C-alpha cells in the first residue's frame, strides 16, 4: 500500500465517529492530497479537488454518508462562511473536512478531529492527529 493511502487508512481508524475534520498545514503541505486519499478510502468515486474558489465541494461515499470538503483560504471575513450556511453543514451529521479552518475559528464546533501536516527537511511529510479534547 502506498504511503499516502496507508496514512489515510490510519486517519480513518483514529477518527472513530468524529465527523468534523480540520486539516492544518502550510500551503503545499499536502492537505488536498491527503483528502483525496481519504475520500478514496471511504469509497468516493467522484473527482476530488480543492474547493478554493467554490468554498465547498460535496462528495458521495459508497456507504451512504456525504463528505463536504471546505477550503476557506480565500475568505476575507469569517462571516462570509455564514452566507453559504456553514452551521447547517457542520450540524448535518455528515462529514465536514475543512482546510484553513483558522479563517472561521469562531464557527468551528466544539468536537472535531485535528489533522496537522508538516513538511520535513527531506521533503517527506509528518501527520499528527488529535481529537479536540486533546488540542491545546
From TrEMBL:
Keyword Cytoplasm on this protein?
yes
Q: What is this protein called?
A: tRNA threonylcarbamoyladenosine biosynthesis protein TsaE
Please give the GO cellular component terms listed in this UniProt entry.
cytoplasm
Question: What processes does the entry annotate via GO biological process terms?
Answer: tRNA threonylcarbamoyladenosine modification
Alphabetized, the UniProt keywords read: ATP-binding, Cytoplasm, Magnesium, Metal-binding, Nucleotide-binding, Transferase, tRNA processing
Q: Which family does it belong to?
A: Belongs to the TsaE family.
Query: Which InterPro entries would you find in this protein's record?
Result: P-loop_NTPase, T6A_TsaE
User: In its keyword annotation, does this UniProt entry include Metal-binding?
Assistant: yes
* Primary location class: cytoplasm
Q: Record's CDD domains?
A: Ras_like_GTPase (cd00882)
Q: Where in the cell is it found?
A: Cytoplasm
GO: which molecular function terms?
Answer: ATP binding; metal ion binding; transferase activity
